[in-house]
Amino acid sequence: MADDHLSAADAEKAKAEIEAEVAGDDEFEDAVEEEDVEDSSNDFKVTPEELSIIRAELACEFPEDYDYLSDAYVLSVASKPYSKDPSIRRPLEYSMEKLSHVMEWRANEGAPDMEDLVRLGNGPESAAENYEELTKAKALTTSLNTGSLYWHGFTKDGHPILWVRTDRKPWYPDVDADVNALILLADAGIKCMPGNITEFVTISDSASPPPPNPTFMIKMLKALVRGYPDRLHSLHSAPVSSIVQFVMNLLIPLMPGRLASKVNLLGLDAMKEKLADMLENGEEDIPTFFGGPADHDAYYPAEGSCPNRGEGSLKFDYFGMVERLEKAKEAWLQNHADASNGN
Fold this sequence. Notes:
This protein is α/β, with parallel strands linked by helices.
């Protein structure tokens, strides 16, 4: 189990590394500035004609990946208050540029091809076209195999839930592979969102976090800010340890105001109460690691208890996870259709 305290020397070192990672990254600073406005429920109207203009521009620039962005998400981005003047809507040109930046980031990071890497990592090595591709696929599956991140279930409001198990995270991670796993999983959850939903919820069991890795922390934050703006509905973490507080104290000042306002650090009792109110089936859906009856380990056990899924190195049940999330979405849609019909 990781010690939940950092020495003063380790804390200073991590802080210095964080500052070095951010210094001079103009694209990240620009992305933060674009988002640096508090969250608001006062969204503005976007006309069907404006939506069509945005979609046509994206289809022209990114013909192979443009449909990754749903109409609901495009409308969500375009309807937000303008960071330079929150009393007005984001200008149409601004929203188009913002969405283009997201798509450019996806192309640069190889986001559209991540699931192909999982299939490659789950198959025989002979299927690989080159050694570099196979190495990347194996690193990605190794990161997934920890079972430290997975989707499971929905909130009452229809947001898919990304669960974090910090006690499963390695002390010395492969940062690039872990960021690739985050991209892969984020896209999988987004694809499983009900049609009118554009954001996900993250819930973290932070009882035994590893020592903070500054490079991973910053790359994760950059991915959220540049690749998934306006995607996080809320993040809830419990219990509160000195390591978690240290990490948040470092990261929150670097976050856009809209993102920082969505982070909630809770005690275990408060988390259980929050989950009972938030989860689709209330207390029934609270996992065992937060004192509830739902056994997530039946689907996502620790790596040592996982069989290989194919001929390669994948142990984590990625494709089963996606299938279960799709079924949970359909159940959510049916439940809420019945409720709206008075059944």
